[in-house]
Specification:
The complex is a heterodimer of chains A (about 230) and B (about 250). In chain A, helix 2 packs across helix 9 (about 195-230), helix 4 (about 75-85) crosses helix 5 and helix 7 packs antiparallel against helix 9 (about 195-230). Chain A has a single domain, classed as MetI-like fold. Chain A is built from nine helices and no strands. With about 230 residues, chain A is mainly α. The longest helix of chain A has about 40 residues, at about 10-50. The two termini of chain B are about 35 Å apart. Chain B is α/β, with parallel strands linked by helices and about 250 residues long. Chain B has helices at about 45-50, 75-80, 95-110, 115-125, 140-155, 170-185, 200-205, 225-230, 235-245, and strands at about 5-15, 15-30, 30-35, 60-65, 65, 80-85, 160-165, 190-195, 210-215, 215-220. Chain B contains nine helices and ten strands. In chain B, a hairpin with a 2-residue loop joins strand 9 (about 210-215) and strand 10 (about 215-220). The longest helix of chain B is centred in the last third of the chain and has 16 residues, at about 170-185. In chain B, the strands form two sheets. Chain B has a six-stranded mixed sheet with strand order 6-7-8-3-9-10, sandwiched between helices. The relative contact order of chain B is 0.17. Chain B has a single domain (about 5-245), classed as P-loop containing nucleotide triphosphate hydrolases (Rossmann fold). Classes of the chains: A mainly alpha (about 230), B alpha/beta (about 250). The interface of A and B includes residues 132 and 144 of A.
Chain lengths: ~230, ~250
């Protein structure tokens, strides 16, 4: 077992290639995250609209969040990654990395919108009353009063979702994109030694552990601030 | 004197609980009217209705000649004329005191930033907050927060101010500084509708006191009459309890 999983020679041989493939994971992560943060905020705001006029918008937003939180991520990746290029439509990209990113954005937008929504709902209604009483419109109230407070409160859970996303970038390897996991699989099957998987795992952990500690630090800091404010 | 506020047959329910059961009330310009009554008698709800923070079920409210409860009315246009100050201050905790005050004039009235900041700084200085412009609300005492909230409402240059038990959340030694601000506003001719438990203050400042009980104005009149010779047994009962609690000197 020690030879199969913890062989230092194989480890050092495979590490440079896997590390280079890992850059793709980081790239997928960074690109997805930008879109997820923007789309999820939009979705959460749509869901917060009140009044019967907005019922269809709210219903669609809820249906979206329910659907994409319910379906396994790998299934969405498979459907888009294998399905979309197979349509051979003009102008539709065939890159599996592209479709992997689209799938991750679709799924994680659903999760992250729920986090934003929790933040929006945690802002006391008296804040909205105060803003509206000053003749600010609903949009201005959201933009200047509600969202700044909401986003600040949900940064720790948002980072938690970032960690999940960083791990899930490995699922894009399933489509054939040569990211860290796929590269380690290639290495492992060439040598029948599984140490390359360990190398990939360490690379993921090297990113997610600092993220996790950063999250802890933010949570602790918020706690200290609340205690200070309560005096 | 011209009439600034008229409320007719105002009714408001929350679910099956009818909080306001037909309120009629009118305020002339420069008049100060205090609403007194037990908790739950509808004082706060009445104020929130006048600022359209609560939709009403029946009746009408007219501010400066415009029926604000009519359909399709410009809600934000109405609110520019009516300022409200809340019991719990409701300052925006993520903004400095200065930004709390300038936000609405800039965004709702379109006042340029420099002008808004200059006017806000003047107002804050007038109410003893000249050295707190850059502070965040949680660094201020309750009295300072409430004064900042009053300035925030004043910065919109309202014609009518609604004060909803603005001293109830304050430590006793901080009540005076807030009441002094309200006195100054009254002397400056501000029209105000004030829900309060501070009976001595009401006696000093009000042109008229209305006693609310179970969603109706049971009795109204000059402060001396209401506080010393109330006609209604319910008013007498209420004032007796207030005196026993030491909130009104006899």
């Amino acid at each position: 077992m020690r030879r199969t999983f913890f062989d230092w020679d194989y480890f050092w041989d495979s590490l440079p290639e896997i590390a280079s493939a890992f850059k793709l994971n980081v790239k997928i992560f960074c690109i997805s995250e930008v879109f997820i943060l923007a789309f999820a905020l939009l979705l959460a705001v749509l869901r917060s609209l009140r009044g019967p006029v907005f019922f269809p918008v709210r219903a669609l937003a809820i249906a979206y969040a329910d659907f994409f939180r319910g379906v396994p991520t790998i299934l969405v990746i498979a459907v888009l990654g294998f399905g979309a290029p197979a349509l051979q439509l003009r102008g539709v990209p065939t890159s599996v990395t592209f479709w992997g990113i689209v799938a991750l954005v679709l799924v994680y937008t659903a999760y992250v919108s729920e986090v934003y929504r929790a933040g929006i709902e945690s802002v006391h209604p008296s804040q909205e009353a105060a803003a509206r009483s000053l003749a600010l419109t609903h949009g201005q109230t959201l933009r200047f009063v509600i969202l700044p407070q909401a986003v600040r409160r949900v940064i720790p859970p948002l980072l938690n979702d970032f960690i999940g996303l960083q791990k899930d970038t490995a699922l894009v390897g399933f489509l054939g994109a040569v990211e860290a996991f796929n590269q380690s699989q290639i290495d492992a099957s060439a040598t029948f030694n599984y140490t390359p998987f360990l190398a990939a795992a360490l690379l993921f952990v090297a990113i997610t552990i600092p993220l996790a500690r950063f999250t802890d630090w933010l949570v602790a800091r918020d706690r200290r601030r609340q205690l200070a404010a309560a005096r | 004197m011209s009439e600034l506020l008229r409320i007719e047959g105002l009714r408001k329910s929350f679910g099956t609980n009818e909080v306001l059961r037909g309120i009629d009330l009118a305020l002339d310009e420069h008049e100060v009217v205090c609403l007194i009554g037990a908790s739950g008698s509808g004082k706060s709800t009445l104020l929130r209705c006048v600022n359209l923070l609560e939709p009403i079920d029946a009746g009408r409210i007219v501010v400066a000649g415009d029926e604000i409860t009519a359909r399709g009315v410009d809600v934000n246009g109405i609110r520019r004329n009516v300022g409200i100050v809340f019991q719990a201050f409701n300052l925006f905790p993520h903004m400095s005191v200065l930004r709390n005050v300038t936000l609405a004039p800039q965004k709702a009235l379109g006042v340029p930033r420099a002008t808004a900041e200059r006017e806000a700084a003047e107002l804050l200085a007038r109410f003893g907050l000249g050295d707190k412009l850059g502070e965040y609300p949680d660094r201020l005492s309750g009295g300072q927060q409430q004064r900042a909230a009053i300035v925030r409402a004043l910065a919109m240059r309202p014609r009518l101010m609604l004060l909803d038990e603005v001293t109830s959340a304050l430590d006793p030694e901080l009540v005076g500084e807030v009441l002094a601000v309200i006195r100054e506003l009254a002397e400056g001719g501000m029209t105000m509708l004030i829900a309060t438990h501070e009976m001595s203050f009401a006696r000093d400042i009000a042109n008229r006191i209305c006693f609310l009980d179970a969603g109706v104005i049971l009795e109204e009149g000059p402060p001396e009459q209401i506080l010393t010779e109330p006609r209604e047994p319910r008013t007498q009962q209420f004032l007796q309890r207030v005196i026993e609690a030491g909130r009104l000197a006899v």
